[in-house]
């Protein structure tokens, strides 16, 4: 992992450290997360991993025999009004 040196106003850094402490994190972790989002690193993998975790934890079910729908049932719009 690489190190990054930035120049920042002392007052701003102090405020950022206080807020990060209140949020239970660090300025370093915040900057890393921001740069990951900015660079797009892991967005798709993170989203898919999160979806998979939610799906595994879900108690949703289509019943014992499963559920199948007809094309007409899938495209029925009568109950939308």
Write the layout of secondary structure elements.
Elements: H1 10-22, H2 27-39, H3 43-57, H4 71-75
Overview of the structural elements:
57% of the residues lie in helices and 0% in strands. The protein is elongated and about 65 Å long. The longest helix is centred in the middle third of the chain and has 15 residues, at 43-57. It has one domain (1-58). The model has no long low-confidence stretch (mean pLDDT 86). It contains four helices and no strands. It is mainly α and 81 residues long.
Summary of the model, kept short:
This protein has 81 residues and is mostly helical.
Total beta strands: 0
Structural class: mainly alpha
Strand count, sense and closure of the main sheet? none
**Residue share in helices?**
55-70%
- Could you give the distance between the termini? 56 Å
Low-confidence stretches: none
- The rounded Rg comes to 23 Å
How many H/I helical runs?
A: 4
Mean of residue pLDDT? 86
Overall body shape: elongated
Strand content: under 5%
Order of helices and strands: HHHH
Tell me the number of structural domains.
1
């Amino acid at each position: 992992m690489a190190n990054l040196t930035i120049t920042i106003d002392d007052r701003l850094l102090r405020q950022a450290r206080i807020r990060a402490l209140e949020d239970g994190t660090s300025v370093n972790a915040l900057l890393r997360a921001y740069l990951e989002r900015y660079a797009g690193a892991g967005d798709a993998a993170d989203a898919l991993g999160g979806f998979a975790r939610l799906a595994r934890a879900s108690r949703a079910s289509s019943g014992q025999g499963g559920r199948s729908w007809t094309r007409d049932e899938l495209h029925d719009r009568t109950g939308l009004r």
